[in-house]
Each structure stands twice: as C-alpha cells, then as structure tokens.
Amino acid sequence: MEGKIQNAVQDYYPDDFAWCYGCGRQNESGHHFRTVWLGEQTVTIYTPKQEHTAIPGFVYGGLIASLIDCHGTGSAALALHRKNGHEIGDGTEPARFVTASLKVDFVKPTPLGVPLKAVGTVQEIHPKKWKVDVEVFVNDDVCARGEVVAVVMPSTFVKKD
Amino acid sequence: MEGKIQNAVQDYYPDDFAWCYGCGRQNESGHHFRTVWLGEQTVTIYTPKQEHTAIPGFVYGGLIASLIDCHGTGSAALALHRKNGHEIGDGTEPARFVTASLKVDFVKPTPLGVPLKAVGTVQEIHPKKWKVDVEVFVNDDVCARGEVVAVVMPSTFVKKD
What we know:
homodimer
C-alpha cells in the first residue's frame, strides 16, 4: 500500500532539506515516511522493520515517536501549502517545518509486523506555527496518541559555511 | 568514552527483554544506549551517526526522542533497583520498565557529529511508576528537554504463544 501513495509532501521538499532520517527521500538509511491528505485529515502509513522492536513482538516507542514527529511536520507543511492556495504536485515547493515539541502517550503495546497508520488533525496556531494531533492505529485500535507543535524551519537550521 | 562505561542498567536486563532497538544489547541493528548513575542523577552518552540527520548538520528529532525514551526507562530501572537495596552488577536483575508517555521540547538545533549527553533526574510517583526529567546536552548547551513517565512492564507485553 505504501508504494502506491502519490503526492506525499516529502516528495516535494527542497532537495537540500530532504535528508531527514525519518522522512527524507534522499536519506538512504532512513524510514521514508510519506504524508498525504486524507480528506481534511492527513495520513502516513508505515510498516516497522523486525529490528524496530521494544519488547519482542512489539514496536519500539522511539519509532512510534519518530513516525508521529515526521507526520506532524509533514502535516503542517501540507496545511500551510493548502492555505497558500497550493496543492502538492502543482509545481510549487511546500514550506519545510521542524518540530518545536513532541508529546506521545503510549496507549497500548503496538504489535510488530503490521502497518501503522498515523492520522493527523491540523490546527493553525500562528502562520508559522501549527499543532498536529496524531493518532496511531493498528487496524482499528489506537495504540498511541501524539501532539506535535511544528514551526516553519528557522534560519538557525541553515549551516554556516 | 561510550566504550568505557561500566555497569549500565541495560547490560543486566533479562535476556528476553534486551532486544530494544534503542537500548537492547541483543539488537544488532539498534543504538545500544547505555545508562548509568552519575551521583544522584543518571546519564546516557551517545554519538549519533551521520544518517541520523534532520536538516543537514543537525540531529534528527526522532533520534533525540529515542535517546530520551530509553534514558527514561533505564533511569527508572536504576532508581527502583537502588530503592530495593541493589546496585547494578551485584548479581540481581533490575526491573524492566516501558514508557507510558514521552514529552520532548526541542530547545535549539542539535549539531551532528558530537556526543549527546542525556542527564536524568528521577522521581517516584508510585512503586511501579516513575517520572524522569531529562536534559540533552551538547557540551554545555541544553539542546532538548524531555519528560518520561515509565512504568514497570505490564503483562500485556509478554507475547502469548
């Protein structure tokens, strides 16, 4: 299912900012999370690898936190892009967000070996600061809930030569 | 420096519960975070790999969240073990904690290529539930602050055959 998703926001991040271990298309070692609209919500689907173990049979919490994190920044980028009158794939680059804060409640042990679905609900706090509420599902079960506050990438993230 | 640390709590988790991607000694693909006492506080030191990039030159937030997560559960295990009259390496196994909730504030961009030092302050909420406040340093700069609520691993984490 993951392979069929078209027009993920991460497919259109500027090349220089597409190296994220979680969601950068240019990071060969990374997870390659990809985030799309699902009606008025957003979704990222990802199947953890066997190595992403916490206790045997269950998914590592740090991977779930990573999924929520990148889903949050990706969702904020989608939302600002739409607010600006654009859709992904229309030839314009979405803004790149980074995470100001991340909160995760682990609701129940998350079984390993099946797809996780992160669903986001996006809310504008400020033109450059968005809050994304995230639920992570396995089938119809909510296994984790998260909240991401994402901000448009500040200039402190640009390396000085 | 990481190689010289003795008596990390993760060195003594029961074999069946030492597979965590973040801190399990048996997970060949994982980060192998190792947590020790530092006076009345706890510390985990880890140097991210080049692939653990967010924006080029800076550490991926999901890796920082993972470090805080495992440092939290490891610190809780250290604290309960000491409360029970034991020290790591005295021949007794520490309890295995899992994460109930995780909160991370990303204070400033975290430079890649240098060691991160997570320092924890542990507080008992309940005999089976501990809160760990974590600061992640690069040299003397706090780059992230976290809070982990860790609970003794419940029976729902034991796979049914």
